[in-house]
Amino acid sequence: MNDVDFPAWMGQMQRRTEAALARHLPRADVLPEQLHEAMRYATLGGGKRVRALLAHAAGAVTDAAPDRVDVVASAVELIHAYSLVHDDMPCMDNDVLRRGKPTAHVRFGEATALLAGDALQTLAFQLLAENRVSENPHDQLAMIALLASASGSRGMAGGQAIDLASVGCQIALEALELMHIHKTGALIRAAIVLGARCGGRVEQDMLTRLDHFGKLVGLLFQVVDDILDLQSDTATLGKTAGKDANADKPTYVSLLGLSGARQLAADLLEQARSPLIPLGRQARRLDELASFIVARKY
Fold first, then answer.
1. What pTM did the predictor assign?
2. Assigned architecture for domain 6-295
Protein backbone atom coordinates (compact mmCIF):
# COMPACT_ATOMS: atom_id res chain seq x y z
CA MET A 1 0.00 0.00 0.00
CA ASN A 2 3.06 2.25 -0.17
CA ASP A 3 2.33 2.95 -3.83
CA VAL A 4 -0.72 5.16 -3.09
CA ASP A 5 -0.45 8.77 -2.05
CA PHE A 6 -0.75 9.76 1.59
CA PRO A 7 -4.37 11.07 1.58
CA ALA A 8 -5.56 7.89 -0.13
CA TRP A 9 -3.60 5.68 2.26
CA MET A 10 -4.92 7.60 5.27
CA GLY A 11 -8.50 7.25 4.08
CA GLN A 12 -8.05 3.52 3.53
CA MET A 13 -6.57 3.02 6.99
CA GLN A 14 -9.28 5.11 8.67
CA ARG A 15 -12.01 3.06 6.99
CA ARG A 16 -10.18 -0.15 7.85
CA THR A 17 -9.96 0.90 11.50
CA GLU A 18 -13.63 1.90 11.61
CA ALA A 19 -14.62 -1.51 10.23
CA ALA A 20 -12.37 -3.35 12.70
CA LEU A 21 -13.79 -1.41 15.64
CA ALA A 22 -17.34 -2.08 14.46
CA ARG A 23 -16.58 -5.81 14.40
CA HIS A 24 -14.94 -5.88 17.82
CA LEU A 25 -17.49 -3.78 19.68
CA PRO A 26 -20.58 -5.55 21.06
CA ARG A 27 -23.70 -5.12 18.94
CA ALA A 28 -26.18 -2.57 20.22
CA ASP A 29 -29.01 -5.13 20.18
CA VAL A 30 -27.22 -7.42 22.66
CA LEU A 31 -27.92 -7.12 26.39
CA PRO A 32 -27.28 -4.71 28.05
CA GLU A 33 -28.39 -2.75 24.99
CA GLN A 34 -27.96 0.80 26.30
CA LEU A 35 -24.43 0.16 27.53
CA HIS A 36 -23.43 -1.39 24.21
CA GLU A 37 -25.09 1.45 22.31
CA ALA A 38 -23.11 3.95 24.40
CA MET A 39 -19.85 2.08 23.73
CA ARG A 40 -20.45 2.19 19.98
CA TYR A 41 -21.61 5.82 20.11
CA ALA A 42 -18.43 6.90 21.88
CA THR A 43 -16.11 4.99 19.57
CA LEU A 44 -17.53 4.89 16.05
CA GLY A 45 -18.30 7.55 13.48
CA GLY A 46 -15.69 10.17 14.17
CA GLY A 47 -12.14 11.00 15.06
CA LYS A 48 -8.93 11.22 13.06
CA ARG A 49 -7.75 7.73 14.14
CA VAL A 50 -4.22 9.13 14.48
CA ARG A 51 -3.17 6.39 16.90
CA ALA A 52 -4.43 3.66 14.59
CA LEU A 53 -2.73 5.32 11.63
CA LEU A 54 0.54 5.42 13.55
CA ALA A 55 0.18 1.75 14.46
CA HIS A 56 -0.30 0.77 10.81
CA ALA A 57 2.53 3.05 9.67
CA ALA A 58 4.88 1.46 12.23
CA GLY A 59 3.68 -2.00 11.25
CA ALA A 60 4.81 -1.25 7.69
CA VAL A 61 8.36 -0.73 8.99
CA THR A 62 8.47 -4.33 10.28
CA ASP A 63 6.37 -5.95 7.54
CA ALA A 64 3.60 -6.68 10.05
CA ALA A 65 0.46 -8.43 8.85
CA PRO A 66 -2.29 -5.76 8.60
CA ASP A 67 -4.82 -8.06 10.30
CA ARG A 68 -2.61 -8.18 13.38
CA VAL A 69 -2.12 -4.43 13.35
CA ASP A 70 -5.92 -4.05 13.15
CA VAL A 71 -6.14 -5.66 16.59
CA VAL A 72 -3.59 -3.43 18.32
CA ALA A 73 -4.88 -0.36 16.50
CA SER A 74 -8.41 -1.16 17.72
CA ALA A 75 -7.17 -1.73 21.25
CA VAL A 76 -5.42 1.63 21.34
CA GLU A 77 -8.44 3.41 19.86
CA LEU A 78 -10.69 1.80 22.50
CA ILE A 79 -8.41 3.09 25.25
CA HIS A 80 -8.46 6.53 23.65
CA ALA A 81 -12.26 6.47 23.34
CA TYR A 82 -12.70 5.47 26.99
CA SER A 83 -10.39 8.29 28.08
CA LEU A 84 -12.43 10.85 26.13
CA VAL A 85 -15.70 9.60 27.67
CA HIS A 86 -14.29 9.98 31.16
CA ASP A 87 -12.44 13.25 30.48
CA ASP A 88 -15.64 14.87 29.23
CA MET A 89 -17.65 14.05 32.35
CA PRO A 90 -18.67 16.78 34.83
CA CYS A 91 -16.17 15.60 37.44
CA MET A 92 -13.32 16.16 34.95
CA ASP A 93 -13.47 18.64 32.04
CA ASN A 94 -17.28 18.89 31.98
CA ASP A 95 -17.60 19.15 28.20
CA VAL A 96 -20.79 18.71 26.20
CA LEU A 97 -19.40 18.25 22.67
CA ARG A 98 -17.02 15.63 21.25
CA ARG A 99 -16.38 14.79 17.59
CA GLY A 100 -19.19 17.12 16.61
CA LYS A 101 -21.90 15.43 18.65
CA PRO A 102 -23.09 15.48 22.29
CA THR A 103 -20.69 13.81 24.68
CA ALA A 104 -21.56 10.37 26.00
CA HIS A 105 -22.74 11.55 29.41
CA VAL A 106 -25.02 14.14 27.78
CA ARG A 107 -26.47 11.51 25.45
CA PHE A 108 -26.77 8.58 27.87
CA GLY A 109 -26.38 10.00 31.39
CA GLU A 110 -23.36 9.98 33.67
CA ALA A 111 -23.78 6.44 35.02
CA THR A 112 -23.99 4.80 31.61
CA ALA A 113 -21.11 6.94 30.29
CA LEU A 114 -18.93 5.89 33.21
CA LEU A 115 -19.72 2.22 32.60
CA ALA A 116 -19.17 2.60 28.86
CA GLY A 117 -15.70 3.99 29.49
CA ASP A 118 -14.93 1.14 31.88
CA ALA A 119 -16.13 -1.44 29.36
CA LEU A 120 -14.17 0.10 26.47
CA GLN A 121 -11.01 -0.07 28.55
CA THR A 122 -11.43 -3.72 29.44
CA LEU A 123 -12.39 -4.65 25.86
CA ALA A 124 -9.05 -3.27 24.68
CA PHE A 125 -7.16 -5.77 26.82
CA GLN A 126 -9.55 -8.57 25.89
CA LEU A 127 -8.64 -8.02 22.23
CA LEU A 128 -4.93 -8.27 22.94
CA ALA A 129 -5.42 -11.38 25.05
CA GLU A 130 -7.71 -13.26 22.65
CA ASN A 131 -6.04 -12.51 19.31
CA ARG A 132 -2.58 -13.52 18.17
CA VAL A 133 -0.62 -10.36 17.43
CA SER A 134 2.87 -11.87 17.81
CA GLU A 135 4.48 -15.20 17.03
CA ASN A 136 6.11 -15.20 20.47
CA PRO A 137 3.75 -15.49 23.50
CA HIS A 138 6.26 -13.69 25.71
CA ASP A 139 6.33 -10.79 23.25
CA GLN A 140 2.54 -10.69 23.25
CA LEU A 141 2.49 -10.48 27.05
CA ALA A 142 4.98 -7.63 26.82
CA MET A 143 2.65 -5.86 24.39
CA ILE A 144 -0.27 -6.19 26.81
CA ALA A 145 1.93 -4.83 29.60
CA LEU A 146 3.00 -1.90 27.40
CA LEU A 147 -0.59 -0.87 26.73
CA ALA A 148 -1.42 -1.18 30.43
CA SER A 149 1.55 0.96 31.42
CA ALA A 150 0.75 3.59 28.79
CA SER A 151 -2.86 3.77 30.00
CA GLY A 152 -2.36 3.80 33.77
CA SER A 153 -1.00 6.00 36.53
CA ARG A 154 2.45 6.16 34.91
CA GLY A 155 0.91 7.05 31.57
CA MET A 156 -2.34 8.57 30.33
CA ALA A 157 -4.33 8.45 33.60
CA GLY A 158 -1.40 9.86 35.54
CA GLY A 159 -1.02 12.67 33.00
CA GLN A 160 -4.69 13.54 33.40
CA ALA A 161 -4.25 13.65 37.17
CA ILE A 162 -1.33 16.06 36.77
CA ASP A 163 -3.42 18.13 34.35
CA LEU A 164 -6.28 18.45 36.83
CA ALA A 165 -3.87 19.42 39.60
CA SER A 166 -2.32 22.11 37.38
CA VAL A 167 -5.50 24.10 36.73
CA GLY A 168 -4.94 27.72 37.73
CA CYS A 169 -1.25 27.13 38.42
CA GLN A 170 1.84 28.61 36.84
CA ILE A 171 4.12 25.74 35.85
CA ALA A 172 7.45 25.57 34.05
CA LEU A 173 7.80 24.36 30.48
CA GLU A 174 9.58 21.20 31.71
CA ALA A 175 6.60 20.36 33.96
CA LEU A 176 4.16 20.91 31.11
CA GLU A 177 6.23 18.62 28.89
CA LEU A 178 6.30 15.93 31.58
CA MET A 179 2.53 16.15 31.95
CA HIS A 180 1.94 15.66 28.23
CA ILE A 181 4.55 12.93 27.86
CA HIS A 182 2.15 11.02 30.12
CA LYS A 183 -1.29 12.35 29.20
CA THR A 184 -1.02 12.47 25.41
CA GLY A 185 2.33 10.99 24.51
CA ALA A 186 2.23 7.64 26.30
CA LEU A 187 -0.62 6.19 24.25
CA ILE A 188 0.80 7.57 21.00
CA ARG A 189 4.18 5.99 21.76
CA ALA A 190 2.46 2.71 22.63
CA ALA A 191 0.50 2.71 19.36
CA ILE A 192 3.73 2.98 17.37
CA VAL A 193 5.65 0.34 19.29
CA LEU A 194 2.68 -2.06 19.35
CA GLY A 195 2.21 -1.72 15.61
CA ALA A 196 5.89 -2.40 15.00
CA ARG A 197 5.94 -5.39 17.33
CA CYS A 198 3.24 -7.10 15.26
CA GLY A 199 5.93 -7.71 12.64
CA GLY A 200 8.40 -10.55 12.43
CA ARG A 201 11.46 -8.38 11.86
CA VAL A 202 11.77 -6.31 15.02
CA GLU A 203 15.22 -5.25 16.20
CA GLN A 204 15.88 -3.36 19.42
CA ASP A 205 17.57 -0.46 17.65
CA MET A 206 14.51 -0.12 15.43
CA LEU A 207 12.16 -0.13 18.43
CA THR A 208 14.31 2.48 20.17
CA ARG A 209 14.14 4.73 17.13
CA LEU A 210 10.40 4.28 16.77
CA ASP A 211 9.82 4.95 20.47
CA HIS A 212 11.90 8.14 20.27
CA PHE A 213 9.89 9.23 17.25
CA GLY A 214 6.71 8.50 19.22
CA LYS A 215 7.83 10.60 22.16
CA LEU A 216 8.48 13.60 19.92
CA VAL A 217 5.29 13.14 17.89
CA GLY A 218 3.26 12.85 21.10
CA LEU A 219 4.55 16.24 22.24
CA LEU A 220 4.05 17.64 18.75
CA PHE A 221 0.42 16.49 18.76
CA GLN A 222 -0.22 18.32 22.03
CA VAL A 223 1.49 21.54 20.94
CA VAL A 224 -0.69 21.63 17.83
CA ASP A 225 -3.76 20.83 19.95
CA ASP A 226 -3.01 23.85 22.14
CA ILE A 227 -2.62 26.07 19.07
CA LEU A 228 -5.89 24.83 17.58
CA ASP A 229 -7.72 25.32 20.88
CA LEU A 230 -6.87 29.00 20.61
CA GLN A 231 -7.16 29.55 16.86
CA SER A 232 -9.89 27.25 15.62
CA ASP A 233 -13.65 27.25 16.20
CA THR A 234 -15.98 24.72 17.76
CA ALA A 235 -17.53 23.62 14.45
CA THR A 236 -14.12 22.82 12.96
CA LEU A 237 -12.72 21.12 16.05
CA GLY A 238 -15.84 19.10 16.82
CA LYS A 239 -15.33 19.99 20.48
CA THR A 240 -15.56 23.16 22.51
CA ALA A 241 -12.93 25.64 21.35
CA GLY A 242 -11.06 27.75 23.89
CA LYS A 243 -11.95 25.51 26.82
CA ASP A 244 -8.37 25.25 28.10
CA ALA A 245 -8.02 29.02 28.35
CA ASN A 246 -11.47 29.31 29.91
CA ALA A 247 -10.52 26.66 32.49
CA ASP A 248 -7.21 28.43 33.21
CA LYS A 249 -5.17 25.39 32.22
CA PRO A 250 -1.47 25.75 31.42
CA THR A 251 -0.77 25.18 27.72
CA TYR A 252 2.14 25.61 25.35
CA VAL A 253 0.47 28.76 24.03
CA SER A 254 0.00 30.23 27.51
CA LEU A 255 3.66 29.56 28.35
CA LEU A 256 5.33 30.36 25.02
CA GLY A 257 2.85 32.56 23.20
CA LEU A 258 1.37 31.67 19.83
CA SER A 259 4.54 32.30 17.81
CA GLY A 260 6.65 30.40 20.33
CA ALA A 261 4.30 27.42 20.24
CA ARG A 262 4.39 27.40 16.43
CA GLN A 263 8.18 27.45 16.48
CA LEU A 264 8.24 24.58 18.98
CA ALA A 265 5.97 22.58 16.68
CA ALA A 266 8.34 23.19 13.75
CA ASP A 267 11.33 22.18 15.88
CA LEU A 268 9.63 19.00 17.13
CA LEU A 269 8.69 18.01 13.57
CA GLU A 270 12.30 18.32 12.47
CA GLN A 271 13.55 16.38 15.49
CA ALA A 272 10.95 13.63 15.01
CA ARG A 273 12.09 12.97 11.46
CA SER A 274 15.69 12.32 12.48
CA PRO A 275 15.30 8.82 14.04
CA LEU A 276 13.33 7.69 10.97
CA ILE A 277 16.11 8.35 8.46
CA PRO A 278 17.98 5.04 8.95
CA LEU A 279 14.69 3.13 8.59
CA GLY A 280 14.43 4.14 4.96
CA ARG A 281 11.43 4.04 2.67
CA GLN A 282 9.39 1.80 4.95
CA ALA A 283 9.13 4.67 7.47
CA ARG A 284 7.58 6.93 4.83
CA ARG A 285 4.08 6.84 6.33
CA LEU A 286 5.36 7.78 9.78
CA ASP A 287 7.11 10.81 8.32
CA GLU A 288 3.97 11.79 6.44
CA LEU A 289 1.87 11.40 9.58
CA ALA A 290 4.18 13.73 11.49
CA SER A 291 3.61 16.36 8.79
CA PHE A 292 -0.14 15.71 8.90
CA ILE A 293 -0.20 16.25 12.67
CA VAL A 294 1.39 19.68 12.22
CA ALA A 295 -0.89 20.71 9.35
CA ARG A 296 -4.20 19.38 10.74
CA LYS A 297 -7.11 21.74 11.34
CA TYR A 298 -8.92 19.68 14.02
1. 0.95
2. Orthogonal Bundle (1.10)
